[in-house]
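Intended use. Records like the one below are meant for learning the mapping from a protein sequence to its folded structure. Do not use them to infer anything beyond what is encoded.
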Amino acid sequence: MAGSSPRGLPLVAVCQVTSTPDKEQTFAACSGLVQEAARLGACLVFLPEAFDFIGRDSAETLRLAEPLGGDLVNRYAQLARECGIWLSLGGFHERGQHWEQSQRIYNCHVLLDKEGSIVATYRKTHLCDVKLPGQGPMCESTSTIPGPTLGSPVSTPAGKVGLAICYDLRFPELSLALAQDGAEILTYPSAFGSVTGPAHWEVLLRARAIETQCYVVAAAQWGQHHEKRGSYGHSMVVDPWGIVIARCSEGQGLCLAHIDLAYLHQIRQRMPVAQHRRPDLYGNLGRPDP
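Structure written out for the chain above:
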């Protein structure tokens, strides 16, 4: 299926970066990409998980983390105002109220509007505790607290955005809940590694797009962050038919995609899978009743 002409459609930018423990260097790279996206006419820019930094170990991560009201988020708020652009800050190392006692933080996805105001936050609910051959064990729960709830999709200039983070991609229930709550764009800012990236990254993103009939936007970390960690990259945008319509090459950079909501709704009308669900057989996969 083909979408309509991009004329007049909102443009989004997806950034691919290589975060390091050097927060100033990382901010310079991210802010440069945001400014470039603004010059190219994007209304909404997506940054990856750990856009603020990637530490060498839990101790360094805890030391470098900040509260939401700290200097770094304020600098991004100013950047959003200066560029007149919405920002998806894909995974912020957030010191919560009791972080000193718990010695754990949140992995927090922050959405800023063009005035620099925080319009939504989502704290990662699925933590990546895995042991894979060819890759050292990863235990995110050592330093991170799982978020307590899903967020509601947020209206943006590009459409209603449902927030998720990286490992959440492996749980279709989350994407279906967001879609049933009105999401038109799902975003999975990530830092996939060299083992899972080639095997699972694209196929999972395309599956989430097809099953929800949403656009899927995936900003990713790329390259060597420090001596202990590297990321796969391949940031991309997938349309509601499951086609990759934008993709970053190797290195730091960005890709652009138009969001065509008329095309999305056409797909949903022609193949109304949401109406064909059988919750009487397998339960309601949407948001649970309060």
